[in-house]
Amino acid sequence: MKHDAGLQELTGEIRKASAFLDKASRLLSERVIGQNRVLERVYIALLANGHVLLEGVPGLAKTLIVRTFASAMNLAYRRIQFTPDMLPADLVGTMVYNPKEMEFYPRKGPVFANIILADEINRSPAKVQSALLEAMQERQVTIGDRSFPLPGPFMVLATQNPVEHEGTYLLPEAQLDRFMMKVIVEYPSYDEELGIMERSATTGFLSDAAPVVEKGEIENARVLIDRVYADTRVKRYIVDLVTTSRNPLSAGLQSLEEMIEYGASPRASIFLLLAAKAHAFLRQRAYITPEDVKEVALDVLRHRIRPTYEAEADNVKPEDCIREILAHVKVP
């Protein structure tokens, strides 16, 4: 009884604390037509302190989504165009000599912001990826022999084009694993595209949206998400999903044994739990259910499961493997 009363009290707090998301959603709907699922995943990542990899062909409003999202959330935003000739200093900054003072001082790079749009992230070489990896994982960067903390909240929203491979680099698995989710940005529906065309058929420049959220509201939401209840049975369900991706034969999934080269790391279990909590928060619930886990599973796991060469030859995608795992693993 006491436990139920605690959940009811937390539910009331969540309903009040999540009001800022309604304000942000109304503003974003005025600027972005469709892509509601993508926007929800961006909310989840922000609330769960994660990063997102957005994959989609050019022209699907990825940059507009991120820029408008940052403006609405009242967060410092920087867009960084990744190129093959980019250097780590172009990202994190460098030490500059001051002849008057006869000493070096740091000139901080564009990564010192709250929301980073890493545009075409797979176009940059390994040294740049390494510098970004430190920022994503440690929330700090190293310039010279000094380390500098990044402002909070800090979030990387990276984009990549799935159809263009010339002049691109495969992201290292260690970096892919740092992204909480990989979200596929789909084409809009017929009616959505008609609305986009009508709204955009002007020559005027779309100015940044006015902020409608305070940073304190985001921090308060994160504190509440930590308190969202996760039953032991749901936690075991998460671990069952992840371990099945690593060893499908032991779970009775013989069909996937030759299809998966390697499965998800333990970081996937952590991110599945955090994303499920954030998803429950968006639904104004103080507890997570297996349905919350299922809702975020594709986005959390798709970049962590590598199909074998034979599977790729048969056009088997990671999503196919994940759906089979979800269908097979017993739901508590």
**Low-confidence spans: pLDDT under 50, at least 5 residues?**
none
CATH architecture of the largest domain: 3-Layer(aba) Sandwich
How many whole angstroms does the radius of gyration measure? 21 Å
**Number of domains in the coordinates?**
2
Order of helices and strands: HHHEHEHEEEHEEEHEHHHHEHHEHH
Strand order across the biggest sheet? 2-5-8-1-9
Percent range of helical residues? 40-55%
> What is the first-to-last residue Cα distance?
22 Å
Categorize the overall geometry. Answer: globular
Could you describe the 3D structure shown?
The protein has 332 residues and is an alpha/beta fold. It has two domains: 2-199, P-loop containing nucleotide triphosphate hydrolases (Rossmann fold), CATH 3.40.50.300; 229-328, Helicase, Ruva Protein, domain 3. Helix content is 49%, strand content 15%. It is built from 15 helices and eleven strands. A five-stranded parallel beta sheet has the order 2-5-8-1-9. Strand 6 and strand 7 (146-149) form a beta hairpin. Helix 3 packs across helix 12 (266-282), helix 12 packs across helix 13 (290-301) and helix 13 packs antiparallel against helix 15. The radius of gyration is 21 Å and the shape is globular. The mean pLDDT is 88.
Task: Describe, in short, the structure shown.
The protein is an alpha/beta fold and 332 residues long.
